[in-house]
Amino acid sequence: MSLTQPHNPSAGAERHYADRQEFMTESTPASMHFHVVSGGARLFKSLPDGRRQIIGFAHKGDVLPAYPCNHYGYSAEAMRTLRVVCMPAPYLRHLHETSPDACAASLHTARQLLIGLHNRLLMLGRQTARERLAAFLIGQGTRMGQNELWPVDPAISRTDIADFLGLTTETVSRLLSTFHREKLISRQRRAIHILDLDRLRAIVAHSE
Fold first, then answer.
1. Average of per-residue pLDDT values in the chain
2. CB-based burial of residue 64 (10 Å sphere; 0-12 exposed, 13-18 middle, 19+ buried)?
3. Is the peptide bond before 65 cis (omega within 30 degrees of 0)?
4. Whose CA is closest to 39, among 54, 22, 19, 53?
5. According to the model, what pLDDT value does residue 3 have?
């Protein structure tokens, strides 16, 4: 999920959040926008029974929320140590009112979020567990650009992946072991590195 917006980080104050510290709460007034400088964040929605559902992850360069709004549409918490620049909502609103590039970026971001939502609906409704995990790894490994692979953020646990994909932790662990044996990925400590992007894409496309 790419939420990057053009802005001037010096317009806000830098803050640090510890692991699992919530810094954005669903349905509260959106007084600040958060530019991720380092670390990562879990994005989640609260359910009526008190449980929560992970809906995405934010990484360096992302802005939460990605566009001006009156209330936060989801909550966010730090994964390990998170460093952000907090930008007052009026600043981002002014930027969108005065900069055509900022408006264009917002429209692009909204479009990408909508595409992501459609893909997630397809994933949950039609894809097998193997296909879901392959798609997730591709999304995380190529989020900084299609021509350069990045490791999956080690702060994203197998439980996080399972929650996001609608699977059990045991299923995710088993599939990661299978992908490792098949030399699709390598695992170094907690980090997951993609070794064969084409074969992972083939799994998603049902052609392997």
1. 85
2. buried
3. yes
4. 19
5. 41
Residue 191 has pLDDT above 80, yes or no: yes
**Confidence at residue 186, expressed as pLDDT on a 0 to 100 scale:** 95
**110 pLDDT above the threshold of 80:** no
Give the Cα-Cα-Cα angle 174, 175, 178 (nearest 5 degrees): 90
CB of 186 within 8 A of CB of 111? no
Q: Which residues of 82-114 are buried (b: 16+ CB within 10 A; e: fewer)?
A: bebbbbebeebeebbeeeeebeebbeebeeebe
pTM recorded for the entire structure? 0.82
Whether the CB-CB separation of 186 and 193 falls below 8 Å is answered with yes
**How confident is the model over 174-189, as pLDDT tens digits?**
999 999 999 999 988 7
What contacts 24+ positions apart, CB below 8 Å, involve 196-204? 197/138, 197/141, 197/142, 197/149, 200/134, 200/137, 200/138, 201/134, 201/138, 203/130, 203/131, 203/134, 204/127, 204/131, 204/134, 204/135, 204/138
Phi-psi map region of 27: left, alpha, beta (phi>0 left; psi -120 to 50 alpha):
left
| Section 132-153 average pLDDT | 82
